[in-house]
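Task: fold both queries, return tokens.
Query 1:
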Amino acid sequence: MKKVLSWILCVAMMLAPVAGLAEAPATLVDVVNFADGNYAFAGVDTVAGNADKSELSVVEYNGGYALRVDVKAKVPYVALNVEGMLGENFSKLAKMTFDIGVELGADGKFYAASGKVYTFTGADLAKNAYDWSVYLRTKNPKNAAVTFSTAFTAGQGEYIMITKEADAYSESGKFPGEEPRDIYITNLTFYDADGNILPVDTSAVYVSANTEADMSNLSILTNTVELPGMAVSAGAWTQAGVEMTPEFWAALVPGSVVEISYESADGDIWVVMPWATAGWIRVAQGAATKNGSLTTAQITYDQFVAGCGEDPTTWGSMFQCEGSSEWTVYSVKVGMPTEKMTLTNKVEFPGFSCTGGAWGQNGFDFTPEVLDALQPGTALEISFESESGDMWIVLPDAAAGWSRVQMMSAPVIGNNAYITYEQIVEVVGEDKALWGARLQCEASGNWEVYSVNVGKVNKLAGLTEIVEFPGFACTGSAWGQTGFDMTPEILAALKPGCVVTISYESESGDIWLVFPDSAAGWMRVEMMNADTDGKTAQITWDEMAAVLGEDVSTWGARMQCEASGNWTVYSVSVAQAQ
């Protein structure tokens, strides 16, 4: 599936026209100096936990032109569609040079900055890093040169990214409230292994290679029902919408969640029920749970009850959206929330790749390793596509007879379906000797399975009432602790039902908390057991209280992070789990 998606992305990168412009013939240059104003081949990636929502533009700079990266708060990730830029010469790429400059401080002085050039190559888009730096005013801008250690291959969605990760201006602490310094990139030049310049098509278009929706803070919804026709837009404080269908009404039940895919100038969106018996009602105004990208909002059934009353028959059938700035809604759906599930310590079912028609089964005999890995607290992860969007398993040789497990109700997260050990045991029992030799897949539409894995289940909760721990960005070596004193707001948010969420990277894949000043002494919480997807870890109130006690006043003033490998934390927040 990754290869299929990468191929689609690659085609899109090379063929997609710039929005609002007629398709133009290729514009080939030896050096990208931005004199033609084109920069559609570049884009800002905001997936990483420390990613900045920088803005790109072409400006006059240093006697010529440059791509200005307007940095707002964090680390800018500027991605380049190099395959689209180089076309048939992409596989020849061996070196890149560019000029990079740093904006002067508000005091007119120069402050050093440095960052990385990342390449993402291979079928799995493996990352390699190369350094750049500007340390002297007399060499600002500076020419940076990168010789790549890995080869590039067409058709896999490979790309290059330029970041600024250290900023002496903002790190000095002398300029509170000032944004980090902007950077300027120009004179991009690409070379083959013999030093020959490769011509560049500046009309290429960047398309994000990240195919995963940003579900930070949100619950994953299952058994969803979409509200047809709910693709609408309006100005600030203006409502637009449609009447709810019987199917949508029937799915709006206790425990359900309404999910809105949207854009708005200020990031806010909510629901209006204009025909409610109680009158014209706003629901969750300013209180919807939103993802970090401010592109998806979720509103719970309980929030509808709080606004419109407990009897849904009094809510009226008209469903509208509204925002405090110009807004566009792309879709609305309702479903039942499930925890975001990821697996660690994976064991692959080798060679599990097969297809089937609707209601047709296909699969392979269990390997001893897969059977051994299926233990309490584990799950099967099935990477798949199907016309119907569902996927489950069949055990055709079970002692209990031909058995389906999780028919149409296995939670689907992205392109993966998850079936837990406990769900299998509920159907065929705990004795694996009675499960039969064969594992098969099935769906209600034509389907294809790309891989099957078994791993330990980690569940990330959807969040509400999020309180950010300001300035919690730090790094540490293996078994080294670093952190900050807790603010009054963070201490107030540490209460029953809360979850501490850590956005991070670590060599070992783990991260946890340390409370060095607690009344009980120096304490670790959730060492190597935090629920994590490798980028985000969550530690619950119950897990903290089990170590530190329920009286937060005894936890000490300081919260630190630690991991068993070198680590970086981008942000920490405390929120209530949905």
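Query 1 returned. Query 2:
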Amino acid sequence: MRLIIAEKPSVAKSIASALGATSRADGFYEGNGLIVSWCVGHLVSPMDAASYDERYKKWRYDDLPILPEPFRYVLAPGKEDAYHNLRTLMNCSDIDTIVNACDAGREGELIFRLVYGMTGCIKPVERLWISSMEDSAIQEGFHNLRPGSDYDALYHSALCRQKADWLVGINATRLFSVLYHRTLNVGRVQTPTLAMLVERDGKISMFKKEKFHHVKLDINGVEVLSERFQHLSHAQSALASYSESPVVCTSVVREQKKENPPKLYDLTTLQREANRIFGYTAKQTLDYAQSLYEKKLLTYPRTDSRYLTSDMAETASAIVHLAAKAAPFDTCSNFYPLVSLTVSDKDVTDHHAIIPTMEMEKTDVKLLPVGERNLFLLVCCKLLCAVAEAHVYETVTATFDCGGYPFIAKGRHVLSEGWREIDRLFRSSLKEKTDDEDADGEFPEFTEGQTFHDVNVSICERFTAPPKPYTEDTLLSAMENAGKEDVPEDAERKGLGTPATRAAIIEKLVAAGFVERKGKSLIPTKDGIILVAVLPESLTSPMLTAEWEQQLTAIARGEADPDTFTDGICDMVLELVKKYSGISEEGQKLFAPEKEIIGYCPRCGKPVYEGKKNFACSDRACSFVLWKQDRFWTSRKKELTKKMASDLLKRGRTAVKGLWSEKRGSTYDAVVVMEDTSDRFVKYKMEFPKQKK
């Protein structure tokens, strides 16, 4: 009997249904000679540093670097039941073969292997490798199981990645946190990503706006501009020369251009466009796509490919025709799909591009949750655009002469809508403008030698624009392309992170307080900017990731030694700890939180800050201090609060309720007035509101 282990319960359910294991038991499905069970993501995790040695519970420079040998693993907290269920099933005498049905990729391989290793199981393993949760895809994959050993190199690559991330993350985080007295999360991917945000923010901050001018002619409703003038006086000279001169069209240049259909979605491109169109974060898009995958409506989302394989052409053609019947695409005219445009076997790695599945024929898309519905239709739109005809247009550049100054107008004529008609239909259904919707109307037919009189002329003022802050759309693109020039063309992974991890990296930076969202923009915080400034370039540059991915790809192909890679990481960590053994006293204060000013000292006018026991003047030479546990307050069973101190510093008085009277054994309300006599201790008196008769 075979035991099939999926990565998630929902995936196990789909596999069980497709293979006829329909009897549900506690922790598994059974039937047709099969048992199907599941992990819950990572069941086994690397042991944390403190578990190796008690002394690692405290973060100290003297304990660095931490280089476990061998690496040890523990059960992920809260997932013990799922692990024990799998261990029982794997050791069952009826089970003779284990099928690894975890997600088909580097991380899925690691999830299964760590569980398999911890249970001590030695039964033979087969691998189910699929890109769709449709019944037909599962059944085909099950009939073409491969020996688990075929993926040993992929597992070693995944294990090396995990160890390297642990070694650099743990040691660099502890090292710089100890040096700067602030928890500073350092990571191979998140730190260079933060550095890109900081670099862009610096360019925006340093940008100096510059004014320039154009002379503008209005000819038949078209804006015709002169060259750029840096100085207003030069633009005014050009304007003056116009008064005696007609406007003459000196040339008209036409050029036919073609925009080929876009490629299909990989995860990063899907996340980018969903952010641009819907404002979804990368994590939201991944969550929606994963849910649609588990509902069998989308193919596997964690892919970096934008093509299909040749054996999918027939199925893809059927899906295209289904999508074309769905609103709003059903009103598209003259649609003759060419699926071969989306096929390229050499450009597909672990998984093909994201497309809808045949399951959409049985699904009422309108009933999907709004986020999933939007994303599903977005994927349908991309599929239809990808197999449509090219968008063909003609660019027109008309040059005019006026008083010896050249003026230029540019426009275009659409010759064939092609795939852009589909895109416009989709955007219109969302009430969103397409890229060319803001363009002026049809460009007039200008002819060479044509002369114009009494043309409206004016000077328009323009400014240079700073770079734009990163959005999730543009940051994902930057992460995808970071360090590409340093990675060989045939490397499996390029850029920072993978399509599956980039969303989590952005969320970690926000959660750690190094980045904040302002609308769609991602802005580094003060601490984020300082962190990038104090870290070595080796940790902030994409080069480290580029080098790692190059080596990890070689390991996955069986062309490099895993131990050599890990030894190199250990050497790098040793060198890092040795180099950064201490920092200046000023450096240690870089991450100190900005103190809140409670008020201003009544004696010297300097700011007053809150301490653990008091509110004291920031000038050490000044003796002014308000003690929280002053006897005046403790005898009345009160403690001086921040608000009360602020009132005293601002107005010299504060209203206090519930003061205790020992004499009467009850509470009362009063206004406490500060009487600063310049003595060591501040004195107080009380005022009572007059009782109404």
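Both queries returned. Flag for query 2: The domain at 168-205+471-587 is CATH 1.10.460.10 (Topoisomerase I; domain 2).
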